[in-house]
Amino acid sequence: MRIAALTAALLLQAATLGGAATPGRGDDDDAASAQQRPLVGPSREPQQRRRQPNVVFILTDDQDVHLSSLDYMPLVKKHLLEKGTNFMKHYATTAVCCPSRVTLWTGKFAHNTNVTDVSPPYGGYPKFVSEGFNDNYFPVWLQEAGYNTYYTGKLFNVHTVENYNSPPPGGFTGSDFLLDPHTYDYLNSTFQRNGQEPRSYEGHYSTDVLAEKAYGLLDEAVDAGKPFFLVAAPIAPHANVVMNGPGHGIHSVYFTEPVPAERHKHLFKDEKVPRTANFNPEEPSGANWVRELPQQNSTNVEYNDHFYRQRLRALQAVDELVEGLVERLERHGLLEDTYVVYSSDNGFHIGQHRLQPGKSCGYEEDVNVPLIVRGPGVAAGYAADGVVTTHADLAPTFFDLLGIPPRADFDGDAIPVTRERIEEVRDKGGRREHAGIEYWGFAMGEGIYNRNPLEHNTYKAIRLSGPGYNLYYSVWCNNEHELYDMETDPGQLHNLLSSSASSSPPPLLAAGHPAHKVAARLDALLLVLKTCAAGTCRDPWRQMHPDGSVRSLADALAPRYDAYYDYDYDEEGGAGGAPRVEYRYCANGFLEDAEGPTWQADGRPFGWGEYGYGELRRREDGTRWEDWV
Predict the structure, then answer these.
(1) 0.85 cut: is pTM over it?
(2) 398 and 465 in one domain?
(3) Catalytic residue IDs
(4) Contact assessment for residue 103 and residue 91, using Cβ atoms and an 8 Å cutoff
């Protein structure tokens, strides 16, 4: 069932159940009494139009694009998709929540934040604090620029009832955070408002409690009379999680399917995971541990369809939250001056490549996430399919929308949000065409099947899309390589670099060129991206071609660069000495010793020959390496 068939019924249900679904104000009043309030309270006098715009950002947890979840959210469709721009190629740079959220709020890739996991020693709120970001990230910068900042919901993992105030998250005018160990417990959440003691909402539905708090923070923001940035970060459609051990690691939690609100439990009873070509395929696919997965039996598939339906049901309260926020902005007279942004920290798979429900892979289901923007100057009902954007771009984008000068240390770029600018950069190649993707550590199935942590889920990857090509390239920590031509293989089932593919005549092509030729260019690009920073991340081709002659893969595929990117190299260096992306061993965090060759500031790959790709390096007679070859 798709959105056309669902819209009327769900809109009627939202109107009928509005009082229960989206209570009117967020403070520490009892949630049960709050749910008795009407959807919208007494109308206030509209505020005078602001010169500086506001932002309301709804950030979901684990929401997919490729499992069609947005098709089941008629209120998001009504208020955001039909009134704003949908960025179709938006990517999480790390496919798990805490590293992804730190990237989002710093504008830096995880290899630069060194927050690469959900819990210590490599991740979580304690790691975020120890790396020095608590007084040097987005809400702090926004307050310095004159904005009030508000947040309710999940901030980071291992932000707990014990450490919530040591130190408190910096940079917020008002806050009401979800806290571990009950962050993902849909019917037993714990919130902590400003500096107050944590409060349990046992028996109340988490997203409804959050909606109440979001509306209250919006009222506070309006009453303060300053431009504001408000975040509502519900846990849906994340799995329900009970933390059943003393620690916060992967072995101390118990995952089950998401829990919907009571009013939504009857919905979507016949829906199933989309049966795409890569759903529980007959033949194994992928690489590393993914390729060893057994095909799921019918009982497993049936449960995973149930898991899928629970995700859709859990998102209905989020759908109502979106409408509640939009309606309140309109009643305050602020909707036309406010950017409403909708996204998720990472994507999700269920059954693709035989995977149990979860994330943590670099495949499209896990990294391609929603990004919808509505606001001043943003085209209504427009699908932006020609630009590649990432979570590292969101902080720079918010700066740009709010008229704040960009920081030089941003790894990302501001995303163009007007239709004219989007089409200009798409047609003239004025914006990068790739997303750098990275991951360290474990992967784990959710639900009731195969929850054993899988090690060696460490990889670097590139998702690249441009005129004439649509590609994914990855290198795993066991040094297996993958290359998929996603124009002909959108399910990423046929690895063009597998041993079977390389021995199959005629030579397999990607982007109209032999796979090995394309892989050589992408490997060089990945070598730069894997440890890039700031401007190097924003324009990695210039590291290899400082004269600006190469700005895209299409440029790099010109025959004149074949020797420069020669893949047949000698480890001692010399002519044609092109280093590969290669791990020394599999590590569970970002450890320099494990990362293998890296691109250095002077343009020379570390430890692999004197010249390598180093177009910035010159021979003693002054000639460039490229000219010498």
Answers:
(1) yes
(2) no
(3) 97
(4) no
